[in-house]
Each structure stands twice: as structure tokens, then as C-alpha cells.
Amino acid sequence: MADRLPNPVWGLVPEPVSGVLQRLKERAATAAEEMDTSGIAGTTPRNHNEAFINLSRAAETADQATRDYRSVFNAYVHRFHQPKPPIGRIAAAQGVITQVFAKRYTSKTVAAVKALISPWPDLDALRAGISSLGFEDLRGLSPELDAAMDEAAANPDFEPWLPSVEKARE
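Now predict its structure.
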């Protein structure tokens, strides 16, 4: 029995990180539901332009949300989580080798994750690093983030941002 290894020490994923991943998942899932092709099916020829635009918008929203999800997830597990998870196995689950894994997130994403878990969240870092979520999508993730958002919103010169796909529609 003396040869047994001690029980591992498991880490906790901070609520703002799991919360932002959940919101990205929900954005992607909603967009995927909007990719329903029943509006273009049938045997009667007709103008499909609006349906094609809606399908394209939904596909882009889902794509951006899932890319942000993977980027935030990878940055968090690779740079922040303790103890370090098995990066090689996580990379393999994504169909890549370990050397490619770190290229699946950017310094902007690392800054965004750091902002999520900081007592003084940097809203500019969140805006730049998680572009598929808008300002209001971040509300409720943590008391610290809510306080930073309230402070920013109180500034008459502050302009809340929209998710990148919605911003492109303006």
C-alpha cells in the first residue's frame, strides 16, 4: 500500500470561464438551429435569396461562436488551469498534434481569459478576444465583470459593442 500514489489535486474552472463557454455554446446552438434548410426545399421554383442570406448569416454566427469557444477553451486549459490537463490528449481529441494546439488560440484570447478571471476585468481585452459575444452577453458572469460593465456604461462616451456578426450587419 505504501507504493500507491497520492490522490490527484483537481482544479476548479472559474465560473466566468465556464459561463462564457456556455454562452458561446448557446450562441452556436441557436445559430445551428437557424441553419434549417426546410425553407429552401421543395419542388416549386422560387426566389431563395432571403433564405440564402439567413442561412449564410446563421452559418457564420455558428462558425464564429465555435471558433471562439475552442480558442477560449484551449487558452484556458493550456495557460491557466491547474493542475495542467493532458494537453496531448486534448489536442488529439481536436485532431491536431500538441505543437499545433497552442496555435488554436491567440494572445488576444489569452488576454480575454485573463480578463474573465481578474478582479479588475479589462473590457477591451474581452471585446478583442471573444468577438462573437457582445457587451451584454458578458453580463452576469461575475460580480467583478458586472461592476466593470456598470462603470463603463456610466460613461457617456462608452459605446457597448455587438457580437462581430451582428456588427457587420449594421
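Residues 45 and 56 are 20 Å apart (CA to CA).
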